Queue: 2 jobs
Job 1
Amino acid sequence: MASSSAGSLKKVNKQMSTAKGGLRSQVHLGVLIAWVGLVTFGTLVMWSASFTNPEVSFPRHLLGIAIGVAVAVVMWNIDFSNLANMSTVLLVVDIIVIFLPYVPGLSYNAMGMTGWIQIPFIHLTFQPVELAKVITVFFMASIGAQYHGKIDSFRDYLKFCGMLAVPFVCIIIQGDLGSSLVVFFSGAVTIMMSGARKEWVLSTIAVIIGLVSLILATDSIIDGIVGDANSLIKSYQMNRLLVFLDPEADTSGAGYNLQQSLIAVGSGGFFGKGIGHATQSSYGFLPESHTDFVFALLCETFGFAGALVLLALFAFLLFSVIRIAIKCESLFFRLVCVGFVGLWMFQIFENIGMCIGLMPITGIPLPFISFGSSSMIVQCIIIGIVESIWRRRQATL
Amino acid sequence: MNAQTLVIIAGLVLLAAVIGSLIFLRGYSGKFTFDTKNGTRPKASEGEGNTSGLAYKGRFTMLTAGVGVMFGAILAKLWSMQMVRGDYYEDLSVQNRTRTVTTAAPRGRILDRNGVELVRNRALLAVTAYSDLVDDPVLVRHLSNVLGMPYAAVRRNIRDNTEGAQAQHTIATDVRRSTIAYIQEHAGEFEGVTVVDRTEREYPYGTLACHVLGYTGTITAEQLEAQDSEERDEGSIVYETGDIVGQAGVEAQYESLLQGVRGEQTVTVDAAGNVTGQVGEVPPRSGTDIRLTLDVNIQRACEEGLAYAISISKQFGYNEAGNGAMLCLDCTNGEILGMASTPTYDPSVFIGGISNDAWSQLNGEESGNPLLNRAIGGQYMSASTIKPLSALAGLEYGVYSSTRTTTCTGYWTGDGEAYGKWCWDHSGHGVMTLEDGIIYSCDPVFYDIGHDFFYDKDNPEGLQEMFRRWGLGSTTGVDLPSEQAGRVPDAAWKKEYFSDYSDEDRTWNPGDMSNIVIGQGDLLVTPLQMACAYMGIANGGKEYTPHVFLSALARDGEGGDSYRYNETGSKERLTAEVDSAYLDLVHSGLKRMIYEESATLAAHFSSLPVTVAGKSGTGEKAGQDPYGWFITYAPYENPKYVVCGVLEQGGFGGSSTVYGVRDVLGQIYNAPDSMSPTDSDRSM
């Protein structure tokens, strides 16, 4: 089989080089335009934030983009179809990556941050969980593709769900609830798109809701037994949830961030306050305005019009990737695209949603916009993978 | 074993569990595969397999719809926040980054009639903090070191709620510039400590005219409540806790003019509360400057004259002398040119809040109640200064004609031998007319008047009626707070006042008449009332309302007036309707009293360039030294000034108070008294 796939790859490359349209056929313009647009917009937001926010290093943001573009080009040139047969390897690598921050010599803990590693000798810090999201998408797609688009057996369905539970639980243990939810949502979309029967999916959702409620309800008891630090739901997470349910309840503690974010978004109006006049973020009322709450900063600076542009770019990106998935002849590639769509859906909805009070607060970056090289590089990797898939959309048989 | 180790172990256990389950699954299916069909190889990289394209199309439609719903939800929420409720959030963001700071408005200055500053303002810096600062003992300790104040005092000031619990509490006022600079340079160490600009009252003449000027203090809870309960005009001042308001004298009387309107500064702040800029300012509007009728020279002459008279009294052995009043008014319009009262107080002790000790000392008996303005609030028996009014009563009611005489033997027995009364001159004055009675203050003349009124069928209380006609027994209406009305006793009053006594003791008797007709007994007057009565005598019966307010200064800064005292209304208080012939008799008698009663007295006044009319009086109070009165007006021909003085326990008016009064006239006419004082005049 290995030789056969290698042969087909050669065939594809030959096809590609002779295909009509040249570059047009090798690069999906929609994704490219959306990507360039998002990165440009993000750069503009960071540039405006860099005047007043000392935590924003504009050169570092540009460096992240440069690395991201370079890595994306590399990804574009790699054929990922072989990963379809490497589920076990993907799972093991995934788990290793997730637990990298615990490897002595790599772990990097500064200012209370966890989940970071520092690559030896070059002192570059990185959040491995961002990479784990991509690996998990491949992992789930590689399993889903084996069912040929229809999961008939309930046992298979359970097995599939169990596979998703592994990276999900690992990321929770590693301590990043937000990322684990991203992986969970992306994986769930993959399972559904793989052909799971509706009644199973619906009953699974019901079970999950029941379980989550049980965990939340018993949280105080669990806290009493093992202590808050070791319990599944930390007290700050509980507070965030309560504040989400009733934003006015506590405007000084956990509710402060949400309240300030709502003010920042709402006070932007239609055209925004303009660069340098975003008082909520530049005077420090809005915390984490360059990372988790970057959407609020964007809304305050560029208003509804700016948010509209951003959402249009995101929508264009997602619909383009769905379009690529439809065009793909390979089920594996199709599910990889679907996994990325799910990943972006959740990250975008959760990040923007928490800024505008639609979702509880979790620390998830907004793709392409938030300050932070790990996220930027990994998002660029995804773009590179998607473009690679587009390039090899017909390279399956 | 820490939490991290636990987590790693948990992770490893989980990993083992996964591998174990994979092995289990493998055992179940024969060999490990992810495939659904036993034995077949994975076909992951292959095409759509056995699923129709239609099924996929449906799933992708669902996914696309899901993405659409997600963006739709975000857009809908954004629309409602930014487009519909944008103004609401804009307000919140403005509230977030702006703070309104009130700036105190300086009070108006108080000037004398010639524009001399009697009260002005001084700018200073104060250190304030909210009361919760007290929870940080380290900072309070640090602050006490920097300010050079005791730790306990700093704590007490921070917790002191008189400025309002939510307001900034003043820790220290008038802090040195260098200390302020230190606090501002180390703002990080003094979080919660604020430096504010204040203005404070300053009294360039110290205690001069303190009773007229009054003092200021923090608005009391009662005053704030009173403000809330009464209806206010548009644009009138709204007081807040901690505001400084006038509490006595002119400061209180003309509070609404003197009080300025607070300014507001809108500043931008960052999240830490640091001020980053100023976006708007409504400047404070300072209070109106007002001019008083006082003349600083005459005021000073009144105070010095009073002090001089007290020193003379003490010299003559009246060691209890010390309290008294002296005032000078313009009898052509009622303007008060000088008003002195002793003992005095320093109005500056009220600045920044008076301590309890100082307050109780000011209100204590031992200190002689220095806050009392004796010129308007001191009630004394008028003594012989009432005799001109008694004479007018006798004439007007036909009780005692101008030609009738009384033979003074020194002892009067008109009410019977058992009720005999001494004249102040026990050797007797001889045959006296009414005018002689005024000149020599001969008591039997007036005993006869009192006796005849008592037995007069038509006007048994004609005497009291005449007193009231000249304004006694009622306030003069002077524009100063806490004026007293005095008392004109009559039968009804006695019955009411002594209601606990037997009917016999409550009955008005001839002795009561004999007392009040010479200004003794239960008659009570204020120095201002007597000055006003003499103003009436000098004016042919007309009394103007005495006042200290002259004008409010216009805001143009050129010294012009925006309006003057009672511009449109009548300045006249009352006109005592008395036959002018009778008034002339009294008028003449008062002049002759000055120049004919005794050579030594006349000598003091003959050095003045004008002719003076006047009357002495000496009130007798059991167990105390006599209360000395002296009231004059001048010039005799065309009266302009009334000068009135009273000394508590200062001895005879003609030998003590007179010297103070003479000095005031000396200041007015620039003719100092060259004669040395004598203790010879013992007329009452």
Note: The radius of gyration of chain A is 22 Å.
Job 2
Amino acid sequence: MIRVEERKLPQHEVSVERFFSVKRLYLLLSQHTGKPSKLLVNKGDSLEESSLIAEGDGLISSSLSSPVKGKIKDIVSFNHPVLKKDTAVVIDVDGCSPKVYSFNKKADFLKKEDLLSKVKHAGIVGMGGAAFPTHIKLSPPKRIDTLIVNGCECEPYLSCDYRLMVEKCEEIFKGVELVCRIVSPQRVIFAIEENKPEAIKKFNSVISTKKYSLPQQKLAILPSYYPQGGEKQLIYALTKRRVPLGGLPFDVGCLVHNVGTIFAIYEAVYYDKPLIERVVTFAGGALREPKNLLLKLGTTIAELFEEGILSFKEEPVKIVYGGPMMGIALKGLNYPIMKGTSGILFLTQKEVDLREESVCIRCARCVDACPMGLLPLEFVKKVKNEEYSSLEDFYIKDCIECGACSFTCPAKIPIVHYIKVGKKYAVSS
Amino acid sequence: MRLAVSVSPHIKAGYDTPWVMRQVIYALMPAFLASLYFFRQDALFVILNCIITCVATEEIISRIRKKPSPIKDGSAVLTGILLAFVLPPSIKWYGASLGAIFAILVGKHLFGGLGNNIFNPALVGRAFLMGAFPKMMTTWSEPFSLQVVTEATPLALRKFDHILTPISHLFLGNTSGCIGETSSLVLILGGIYLIVRKVADWRVPLSIIITSALISFVFYLVNPVNGSVLFHLFGGGLMLGAFFMATDPVTTPVSKKGRFVFGVCCGALIMVIRYFSGLPEGVMYSILFMNAFVPLIDRVFRPKSFGAMGTVRREKYEG
């Protein structure tokens, strides 16, 4: 693992600001890992806030609800950061009074199955970035003994999880209580990196009051390394168990949930509120004022600039969807917020590294940096020589594409790029 | 708005390859100054000659190969300095130039240029000169006076005349020998700088030094005429080799375990050559020899991946 300059200020200390007065939403149907959701509505339909728009299709999929009251203007193909283009429901927002969600006390007595179906219906997915459907993670085929609440947020710049932990601490504990009722682990570990003192203080004080009925609970304060928040790294750091190659956390009795996901579960169960909004960090040197915004899913970045919520101090050279280590470079501002969007970064020339690739000098910094114990330089060499068949002998599938290798490379070799190419061919060969 | 689109990560460490090369050159500066102090203008001429010849050779070859000029990466300058450091101060100008040309042409570019060479280029240059001009390569000058005498190096005196040079002379550098190798003190200082700045891996020099020390200790116990531990560590090119030649990233293994193995084998070979061969010194040949084994070491000591070490077995949670 590596140390990376955090660059979390000033957004780390900026409270979450709500911006719901959008005019038009672009709701993509592939907001999660797995099959795209199946559309249930048509062009011209009127929608109520939180009414179902699309449902999960197949085993690994997720449903989608309308973030607002409005009317479907059209169903079009729209920009998707990963898929390039994807089907999007265009909703013209009806600007009248927003829906009020009331606290449902009866939720305390819901059975495990009812809790699960609420999570599934709400369309909750992992909000740390991978966007894997949460209801599947909550029904593991093996017994879970350890629940890990991931509040590491090891990506530089990002602060949405930290703000949530500071501002919604009690709610997160209630959410953890719900998860415990579903998977009944023997212990809960809250994992927070040491660079988040405010969150550590709050979590510590809540844990010491013992007012939530959790099994044995512990707050683990971890050193800020990248990628500490990676599922496999985190499990290893906390339990010394290694998720096997091709395995999943439940193979070692662990379940990891991001704090944002936990909060979404809380809202889905206690307020019957589907996942229709999330906190997104907007940061980077090109912004006049970095912010953490609570936004409706489908809000486009462009609209935030048109509305004057965000403004440029200087022109960015790169816009990144997600964190700077694993995020995706965007081609413009016309991209909508999705369930897994943790941040949008507007980076200046000074912040990004556009130096050209030179030759590998075998310095092995990538080998030392790799959290998965791989030989990144070998992947580069083999992909360049088109020796795809031997890639699997070097465990290319174990690579989590965290980017620690490329970060440390003095030759500025885009190692992750070569690995992605290699994975594609290693699979097809 | 013109936006750059490339694969993650979007932020990278500030250093680059030229920075790495510069750090090594900085680390060689104490030894450079020491060489000027002991061997005066002779040292300066050889060093300048090697640097200029290396850089010129690199530029010409790159033009012939129609590759972008690699001069900026600083590796040719570094090879020049390292080659000069392993040559006798009294070497003829054409000897040094030919060695430099050979180092860059054969040692580096015939293998495909920076990053692809199997052998340390500077040592390839020296090995060539040892074969081509053995007399020139074994004619030594006294420090300060620069008198070209047939006075042998401390290691040769030990081997052939059973005379042991005082440790303090070896440590400070007040002996005859190659331009940059005589003073262990300044080489250790430079080596520490490299390790602190994380440019060189401590595993290689440490394992070479410890292995050589252990072997020489045993031989010293058998017969003190074999030379003490410090005599062998500070004598000859051991420190220069351990800190600056064996740590060349291109020609050393990539895994941590592999680096230990590489260092231990280098250290053992050095002592074997010093004790049992017809040569007084073995640093160059041991490192070149071990360079050839790097692909094998990398293959055998490939680190196990995180996932491959994982087990589905679930340990019982206690606590």
Note: The interface with chain A takes residues 1-13, 15-17, 19-20, 73, 113-116, 201, 249-250, 252, 254-256, 302-312, 314-315, 317, 319 of chain B (CB under 8 Å).
